[in-house]
Specification:
25% of the residues lie in helices and 22% in strands. It has 376 residues and is α+β, with helices and mostly antiparallel strands.
Length: 376
């Protein structure tokens, strides 16, 4: 069994004002499970189709019966140089009807097809009435991985989906985040949660975005303190000008609050503020996409396949005046999820010897202490 990587709070640091859930993870929201497949193979010069490979798949399952009992959902685009499939149906219907998967940019299609295959198998391949529109997002791992070798297959999607579970969530160089770079440090997968006003909001991010000088940790300019003259960037100077800040971030928000679709959309918008607090700006070439779902009405409105039904049903909603508390939960959970991705990540050398250095814990603690934000 892999030893869990340290997290931001394991260093004695805190961020924000709200308390996290017991696991400080998206799985603090009842019913939510997460599964991953990680592919790390080969070293040395890039040989397309052979490697090196530094990639994977992450799957978030809102609740066990999601394909038969959808949940209300909403989405937000901070910047659109990226992909998150299935959002048109979410915008149209306000419903999330499948698990959510995240992978690398050139594997969105095969991951989507894998989720469709699992959905079809669960409902019988002979059913002419069944259809599936999965939600699949991406960030670009081609700096470290053989992205054009198409190493993700349906079997990797099914493995991640079949292994989805509650409990602690692996972070750093795992799942879809395996080959990702964040603020020119090694990035990847991160998660966090907040509890406020009786409701839990959890975030899971695939962090592959940001410029080094912009990185802020609890308001401290860590990126300026640890410039590329101190910790090298994965890119040389010429490539930095073109590449730094051009990556992407996918944010998945979950809550147990009974939100309606427009409230889920409002919640998704606030994750952008969490990205900004760490120094992300939704740069021109960055794909910064967010989806939020609410389990609070799960099972109350039956299957989205019941088009013929004319019977009304009752749903619940949080009063609009109480949304501010949930907004802050989304902001802080997103912020800490990004920090957890950075802290849990390990230095990784990928194709052609390109190295993404981890954010050194000792250096971070020294800087945070010097700015009055050190361990209490």
């Amino acid at each position: 069994m892999t030893t869990p990587r340290p997290r931001y709070r394991d260093l004695g640091l805190t961020v924000g004002l709200l308390p996290p859930g017991p696991l400080n993870a998206i799985t603090d929201v009842p019913g939510v499970s997460v599964g991953m497949t990680t592919l790390i193979e080969g070293a040395g010069p890039l040989v397309v189709g052979q490697g090196p490979v530094r990639t994977g798949v992450t799957v978030v399952v809102p609740h066990p019966e999601i394909t038969d009992a959808p949940v209300f959902a909403g989405c937000h685009r901070l910047n659109g140089n990226g992909e998150l499939t299935g959002l048109e149906w979410i915008r149209e219907s306000g419903q999330l009807t499948t698990p959510i998967a995240i992978t690398n940019t050139h594997s969105v299609g095969v991951v989507r097809d894998g989720l469709v295959a699992a959905d079809v198998d669960a409902h019988g391949r002979t059913s002419a009435a069944f259809w599936s529109l999965p939600v699949v997002g991406e960030t670009y791992d081609g700096t470290l991985s053989d992205i054009n070798g198409f190493h993700i297959g349906t079997e990797h999607v099914l493995s991640a989906l079949g292994g989805a579970a509650g409990g602690p969530v692996p972070e750093g160089n795992v799942g879809g985040g395996t080959g990702m770079i964040c603020h020119e440090f090694k990035g990847g997968t991160g998660t966090a949660s907040r509890v406020n006003a009786g409701w839990t909001v959890g975030a899971l991010v695939q962090a592959n975005h940001g410029r080094r000088p912009r990185l802020a940790v609890d308001g401290v300019p860590v990126g300026r303190e640890l410039g590329v003259d101190v910790v090298p960037s994965p890119w040389d100077e010429e490539d930095r000008i073109a590449s730094a800040g051009s990556g992407s971030i996918i944010v998945v928000l979950a809550t147990d609050a009974p939100l309606l679709p427009h409230q889920c959309e409002r919640l998704a918008q606030r994750a952008a503020l969490g990205i900004a607090r760490v120094g992300g700006g939704g740069e021109h070439s960055s794909g910064d996409l967010i989806v939020a779902f609410a389990n609070g009405n799960a099972g109350r409105f039956g299957s989205y396949k019941m088009e013929a039904s004319t019977e009304p049903f009752d749903v619940r909603m949080v009063p609009e005046g109480s949304m501010t508390e949930l907004f802050w939960s989304a902001i802080e959970a997103t912020e800490e999820a990004i920090l957890n991705a950075l802290i849990a990540a390990e230095t990784m050398t990928g194709r052609d010897g390109i190295t993404a250095h981890a954010l050194d814990h000792g250096s971070l603690l020294e800087i945070m202490t010097r700015y009055g934000r050190g361990p209490s």
